[in-house]
Write a structure and sequence with these properties.
Order of helices and strands: EEHEEEEEEHHEEHE
Mean pLDDT: 91
CATH topology of the largest domain: Alpha-Beta Plaits
CATH class of the largest domain: Alpha Beta
Largest sheet: 4 strands, antiparallel
Number of helices: 4
Radius of gyration: 26 Å
CATH architecture of the largest domain: 2-Layer Sandwich
Helix content: 10-25%
Shape: extended
């Protein structure tokens, strides 16, 4: 909840289990900004460099000292996204300490193998990414050796121009990774433990920011239509 006064405002949570602190309120001033204390809005710029944050009680904070000024020319913030690819991904667990010790090397070799398998497709048309997370996910509460780093979770994704191509390459990555014969390997079975079946998940379209800037306008209302409505 926010309460406005002539020279300040105060905020506090409506839920008694929550708290507003000087740190939590001050931290929120960094939200989605390209500058630590300047915030641009429609036709204005807010300067927070002189702000003070005062703890009034256990869950109430007063903020004062910000300055607001008009911008010339008038600007409007634009945000936009475009579709760039289609994603298929796999989540898998690894517990072999030998594989864990050289996971980046094996992942690099898997990528090289996929490039050889798909020589007829330009490498610019797809992307293979690996993300390695460490946590007790393979055996859960049955884990006999709950030591940090004894297992990792590998999430790999393939981005491509079509869902079909993304899924086809992801299946090849999964199969190659699962049976890749790295140095020191003792077993010829799979290297990966899949928590889900089927293992390959078609995510669909992938988007990225394509527009994120301030646009100068002469009339702030010229680009927007509006109408009054009464019940």
């Amino acid at each position: 909840m926010g309460v406005l006064y002539e020279d300040c405002f105060e905020v506090y949570p409506c839920d008694t289990k929550r708290r507003c602190t000087k740190l939590s309120v001050a931290a929120h001033t960094f939200y989605e900004k390209d500058h630590p204390y300047i915030l641009h809005g429609p036709g204005i710029a807010m300067d927070l460099s002189g702000c003070t944050f005062t703890q009034l009680s256990g869950n109430r904070v007063r903020v004062q000292g910000s300055k607001l000024s008009a911008t010339d020319p008038y600007t409007i913030k634009l945000e936009g996204a475009r579709k760039v690819a289609y994603r298929t991904f796999v989540v898998a667990g690894v517990r072999d300490p030998i594989l864990i010790s050289k996971i980046e090397e094996v992942e690099s070799l898997v990528k090289m193998s996929i490039c050889e398998q798909y020589q007829d497709i330009d490498e610019s048309e797809y992307t293979i990414n690996f993300m390695n997370y460490g946590k007790n996910a393979v055996m859960g509460n049955l884990e006999p050796t709950p030591v940090a780093g004894h297992e990792i979770c590998v999430v790999f994704e393939v981005l491509a121009k079509t869902q079909e191509l993304s899924s086809a390459i992801c299946a090849s990555v999964r199969s190659t990774f699962m049976h890749y014969g790295y140095e020191g390997r003792k077993s010829t079975a799979g290297n990966l433990a899949f928590p889900f079946a089927p293992s390959d998940v078609e995510f669909g379209a992938v988007y990225e920011f394509s527009v994120y800037h301030l646009m100068e306008v002469n009339d702030p209302a010229s680009l927007f239509s509006w109408q009054w409505w009464r019940p």
